[in-house]
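Supplementary Note 3. Input sequence used for the single-chain structure prediction.
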Amino acid sequence: MIHPLSLTPELVALVERVEPDPGPEPHMRDPTDLELDEMAEKLLAEHNPETLWLFAYGSLIWNPDFESVSSVRAHALGWHRSFCFVVKRWRGTRKTPGLMMALDRGGSCVGIAYQLPDASLKQQIVRLLDREVDAMPPTNVAKWIWVNSSTGRIKALTFVAARDGPAYAGKQPPASTAAAIARAARHWGSSAIYLQRTVEKLEEHGIRDRNLWTLQHLVAQEIIKNTATEG
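The predicted structure, written as discrete structure tokens, is reproduced below.
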């Protein structure tokens, strides 16, 4: 049964605003094509699979931007979803930073493993890196992890938080996380819609992440409070 979210589209719409992309912060830059190529080469040197599997846990589920030939629910042990890195582009600004999600160490995470087509592995990995790597030096980084599924154990590519990355925020109190998500937005949309769509899509797959479910309720309350104060 899909339960209604407290964080409704109507509440999310109150946070949305579109501002121009300012580009990377002064001490950071976007990765070059050569750097993305080298990252892909390094990943394939670590593991060169016959079939490429991708473990998705957030926006790659509701906004995949890739082709897949099959998918299966999968469980990653030793990793959990966390709004653990700060964004001052895309879904936040330098004045009002947002938070985005990555896998962080500890706990467990249920997501979806996608089998990608048997095309150029390197080309597909470069495309994923281009979408997911946040900046140079990066905080959202690609990594091979083992996940368990009904079809067996799978070694899949996923994206995790680099704890030495410049944007890594670590574990934040739920109230602080909710306050940031309830305010931040930019040209990719708000941090709130990122959360709302993630929880909504997980529910459709029968996946209940208790931490995200609690967080979406806190964000809804925060938006209501902000709207009342500003009004």
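The beta strands are 53-56, 70-87, 98-115, 140-149, 152-161, 185-186, 189-190. The first helix runs from residue 9 to 13.
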